[in-house]
Design brief:
Blueprint: H1 2-22, H2 34-46, H3 55-65, H4 79-98
Helix pairs in contact: 1-4, 2-4, 3-4
Length: 99
């Protein structure tokens, strides 16, 4: 059961990373739940960024959760950073559902 769950998360991450790079203007609502978007909006406010409306901005916020340090000459976040960020986003979203 554990490997199936992990496979689904890895698939979502791969989809997020690839589509986020190829179609960054796509709505964030396509790949994120309402609870995840609320968590990302709170994170954006903490980092003084606009709320995520597209995949590019949502992906950057997930990467920030994973420890990514944005910069002009830095490459886009990789799978490891996205994995860390997505795990943290899931924990935040689960906590938001409990409240």
């Amino acid at each position: 059961m554990q490997s199936r769950f992990t496979t689904v998360i890895v698939w979502r991450l791969l989809l997020l990373t690839l589509i986020g790079r190829d179609v960054p203007q796509m709505s964030a609502e396509v790949l994120f739940t309402d609870t995840q978007l609320i968590a990302l909006q709170d994170l954006a406010q903490e980092h003084e960024r606009p709320p995520p409306t597209d995949l590019a901005s949502a992906m950057l916020l997930v990467a920030l959760l994973g420890g990514y340090q944005p910069g002009k000459k830095r490459p886009p976040p990789g799978m490891e950073v996205m994995w860390e960020g997505y795990q943290r986003l899931e924990l935040i979203a689960m906590g938001g559902n409990c409240v």
